[in-house]
Amino acid sequence: MSGWLLIIFLLLLGGMISTLGDLLGSKIGKARFSILKLRPKKTAILVTILTGSLISASSLSLMILVNRQLRVGLFRLGDLQKKLQDSRQVLIPLKEERKKLEKKIKNKEKELVQLENNIIALRSGKVVIRSGQSLFIAEINNIKKNSINSQIEEILINANRYALDIVKPKRKDIANLLLLRKNHIEELQKKVSKGGNWVINIKSVRNVVSGENFIYAIPEIIENKTIVTKGEVITKIDFRTEDLKKGFGDKINLVLASSLAEIKRRGSLTNEIKLRGDSVKKIRDFLIKNDQSNYEIEAISLKDSKTAQSVIVELNINFLNS
Fold it and tell me: Which of 2, 120, 202, 286 has the highest Cβ tally under 10 A?
């Protein structure tokens, strides 16, 4: 039943019941009828009151009968309020989780924008620092505990200066570009304070475009150990005569690349193998004078090298038995 029809019906019903009540009260008054030993006048008043109550009761009953929301509101209001309160309690952690998710989404959107900028910069050649690139490498050997903080601060200053020269070479004043997490620095200080020989490597977290105002970096601490010793054969590769003559330079590069991969596996931070200047000439001269079918080329370390130190090698060629 629509609202307007219900209102009209209630008005008609109320009018009819009130009219009947009034007629009934008048007749009871004229007949001097008595209920419950009341005087006729008071009996008429009682009938009028009962009639009004009947109007209210009939109106309410009709509304309850035709309106489901009213029935629910009257008889289940307490349960609904309790459920609503429970729902609100459940919603509190969900709202907090939603805020966290929205924050993560915003951070991911920022990262996506930065990634797009980096891709554009890569294509245009504007990236000056690559993700994972070392900004500064320093050795720390059993320093005193009271000077640990100053030593680490000096390392960060040098890393910042190096980054500033690359990212903003024209800037004359010193600006703090590096951003490192406080807990990373605290972990670094804690580990160094235990003593020992360490290498601290300050690395960029992401690609950096020329002119950027901030560089996110992370400190890496590695044990400063001996990677190769003087006279050690780092790697050796077998070749046939025809292989060496067809692609001599490629074969030499393969030996050096294999040597670099080996020292990287051992924990070296160097990014290249330095070759003794006359090594290639000696091998060429050897091949001109000899015409054997199989050879072995060795990369031999010329000095002791630790984690952060450069590795210098010379190449040696030997006959292999057929």
Answer: 202
Up-side HSE of residue 122: CA atoms within 13 Å toward CB? 10
Q: What is the mean pLDDT of residues 162-177?
A: 80
- Report which DSSP code applies to 132: T
**Average pLDDT of 24-31?**
61
Q: Tell me how crowded residue 303 is: count the other CB atoms within 10 A of its CB.
A: 13
Predicted confidence at residue 262, as pLDDT, reads 92
Tokens 């630790």 belong to residue: 306
User: What's the total number of domains in the chain?
Assistant: 3
In a domain, 259, yes or no: yes
Q: Do 167 and 138 fall into the same domain?
A: yes
Say what the alpha-carbon torsion angle 4, 5, 11, 16 is, to the nearest 10 degrees. Answer: 170
Residue 194: CA count within 13 A, CB half-sphere: 8
Domain stop point among 224, 239, 258: 224
Do 160 and 234 belong to one domain?
no
Rounded CA separation 268/260 (Å): 9
Determine which of 62-71, 81-90, 274-283 has the lowest per-residue pLDDT on average.
62-71
Rounded CA gap, 313 and 19, in Å?
119
- Would you say residue 14 lies in a domain? yes
Sequence letter at residue 291: D
In the chain, % helix, strand, coil (3-state, to 5) comes to 55, 20, 25
Q: Are residues 146 and 180 in the same domain?
A: yes
How far is residue 126's CA from residue 211's CA, in Å, rounded to a whole number? 9
Which domain, by its residues, includes 279?
227-319
Q: Do 138 and 214 reside in the same domain of the chain?
A: yes
Q: How many CB atoms neighbour CB 261 within 10 A?
A: 12
Domain boundary (209, 224, 239) is at: 224
- 270, pLDDT greater than 80: yes
| pLDDT attached to residue 229 | 93
Q: How many CB atoms lie within 10 A of CB 28?
A: 20
Instruction: Assign 231 a pLDDT band (cuts: 50, 70, 90).
Output: very high
